[in-house]
Amino acid sequence: MDAFSERWNKKHPKISQFRRAKWANLSTCFKYPQEVRRLIYTTNAIEGFNRQLRKVTKAKSIFTTGDSLLKMLYLVMMDIKKKWTGGRQDWSVIHAQLAICFAALNLTA
Questions:
Q1: Assuming Cys at both sites, which of 23, 32, 49, 88 could form a disulfide with 36, CB separation 3.0 to 4.6 Å?
Q2: In the predicted model, what is the mean pLDDT of the chain?
Q3: Distance between CA atoms of 21 and 99, rounded to whole angstroms?
Q4: Three-state secondary structure along the chain?
Q5: What is the pTM of this model?
Q6: How many domains does the chain contain in total?
Q7: Which residues contact 56 (CB under 8 A, 6 or more apart)?
Q8: Owning domain of residue 17
Q9: Cβ contacts of residue 104 below 8 Å, gap of 6+?
Q10: CB–CB of 28/35 below 8 Å?
């Protein structure tokens, strides 16, 4: 913690203060294995999905009703879903690690 503060205090003192104040919340992520942490903070799939939805709604900026917008988004989501053929390469490892981390919760029941 001190090494981080020494390095970043001169440029960004607020970051170091925030990190010290919120360390209990920030450090929660570190109790998981690296593959699970990567899954937690990776948002590329979500960003890509939102980009494709924005592309359709931006091109057609006028919808006669809210239902027409919802129907358009539904159809686009179905089209996006068809294109998602692959999963995560390391999903079996992540699944096993999550099963170990949350074994006490009995998530399979």
A1: 32
A2: 80
A3: 31
A4: CHHHHHHHCCCCHHHHHHHHHCHHHHHHHHHCCHHHHHHHHCCHHHHHHHHHHHHHHHHCCCCCCHHHHHHHHHHHHHHHHHHCCCCCCCHHHHHHHHHHHCHHHCCCC
A5: 0.46
A6: 1
A7: 72, 73, 76
A8: 1-31
A9: none
A10: no
In a domain, 37, yes or no: no
| Residue listed under structure tokens 């089209």 | 79
Amino acid of residue 107:
L
pLDDT tens for each residue of 63-77: 778 888 888 889 999
Do the beta carbons of residue 3 and residue 16 sit within 8 Å?
A: no
Distance CA 41, CA 36 (A): 9
Angle separating helix axes 66-83 and 44-59, nearest 10 degrees: 140
Closest among 49, 51, 56 to 73, alpha carbons compared: 56
Residue 17 structure tokens: 């203060």
Residue at 3 is within a domain: yes
Q: Is residue 11 part of a domain?
A: yes
